[in-house]
Amino acid sequence: MTVIDVDEADFQTEVVARSAELPVVVDFWAPWCAPCRQLGPVLEKAAEARDGKVVLVKIDTDQNPGIAQQFGIQGIPAVKAFVDGEVAAEFVGAQGPSQVEAFFDGLVPSETKQLLDAGDEASLRKVLELEPANPDANFQLARVLYAAGDPGTALGLLGNVAGNFAADGLAARILLEQQDGENARVTEAFAQLDADATEAGLDILLDELAASDPEGEDRERLRKVIVAVLDELGVQDPLARESRRRLAAALY
Question: Where does residue 190 rank: exposed (0-12), middle (13-18), buried (19+ CB within 10 A)?
């Protein structure tokens, strides 16, 4: 990892000129600043993960007030990314690891990001070797394996994903498909959804939900499948708005 302490004398060389070769992330900080000390190690970890493809520079604003004034630094920590001599991205205040990773990914994608973007089974398995609990990799691989005819393994992977409507919906679909005496109408609904006949598929699922046992497991599974479809449609979609009304009426 490349981390450099820079002052006013070498800013032009170490930041502006160097940013023509690779992105330079500048951390404006001060020793007395507690949020700066909190953010510093997070920035260093993100830079280290990119294996020399980005430079992390630290500038003490107390010792270099001219640079701080030049770039309008009014609060610290302040982070600016330079590309080709210009500020390409920035944020102010301490950020969590996920936000910092996203910031760096916009400059130089991490290995994990590149593998997730590839999205094939081998790449996703590689992510899980590096980060077994990675929710995106677990979900994406589950979808790949489900499509390949391995719903059991897919269901196991989905158990590692929380707070994701699409993942909950896929897990619920698998459970509905695995149960004894599979419901022919639900099977037809899934076929319609797979054929991009979303309105027809939702119509069947909502009818089945309304007719389901209020205390039965199928009711909750149907709800999760429907919510996943609605989430994918988005809040402004007319079909989603009407379907949410029918969903609420069926449930309450």
Answer: middle
